[in-house]
Amino acid sequence: MTGTGICTGRVAAVTGAGRGLGRAHALALAAEGAQVVVNDLGVAPDGAGSSAGPAQQVADEIRARGGQAVAHTGDITTTDGAASLVATALDAFGRLDTLVNNAGFLRDRMLVNLDEDDWDAVIRVHLKGHFLPLRHAAAHWRAEAKAGRRPDARIINTSSGAGLLGSVGQGNYSAAKAGIIGLTLVAAAELARYGVQINALAPAARTRMTEQTFAATMVAPAEGEFDAMAPENVSPLVVWLSSADSAGVTGRVFEAEAGRITVMEGWRPGPTADRKSRWTPAEAGEAARELLAAAGTPQPVYGAR
Known about the structure:
Layout: E1 11-14, H1 20-31, E2 35-39, H2 53-64, E3 69-72, H3 79-93, E4 98-101, H4 116-146, E5 153-158, H5 161-165, H6 171-191, E6 196-204, H7 208-213, H8 235-242, E7 253-257, E8 260-264, H9 281-294
Parallel strand pairs: 1-2, 1-4, 2-3, 4-5, 5-6, 6-7
Antiparallel strand pairs: 7-8
Helix pairs in contact: 1-8, 3-4, 4-6
């Protein structure tokens, strides 16, 4: 591990870091000098069970490469688990500079077959699992700022193309990931005064989740070819957003896939009609048709035919 990387001297906590994207982020942060808290509950792809193994294995891997890391196996969808994530960083390394919210799992169903438990579980891990670590980290940084120790803090939230465009068979996941974008925008506005920058990332990479849902797209290439879906392709942007070098970048949403980085531009006013008085339903419909004819065509929902 380097002692002169762009995250040298910074402490990062990464949720869901036992496998996939989270593991790649943790290793990349450590390679750039960060001290890392590796959080993972060690659940199955549908959220069942738990194991301390994945988090500990990644922490051990970082240390074996000469870096500094500790494992955290608390449930970040609970108040106690999220609070202990922040406490672990402070106890182990004396500070917290970056939070990467990444933990999640899938329970895909078409909406007519999606039961309440599957809705609640996915909303909980993705949306509540972002809110609680963010809330506890933000409370720590606000206290630091009020004590005269203004942080230079970063939060990177993980959304998805499903949150930007929707994805057939993933109503619960799409809703959670869209909610994460809204949470990111509000948090960026509220926490700027305390020295906290918050951005969101919509990655595309090979993970346990995407290998199930997009199996054909996620097939590894032949040896020697560029692996476009390797999770390690996404991590350099996460590392940069985690670093002091990203000063001034907040409230933005990025897509990252293979060798491509895109700044996503969200809802903004399009064609508008204003008659300065109340419409009749028929008039409103006629106006809406004209406006839609002048508007751009939306990007299709993933999986739509």
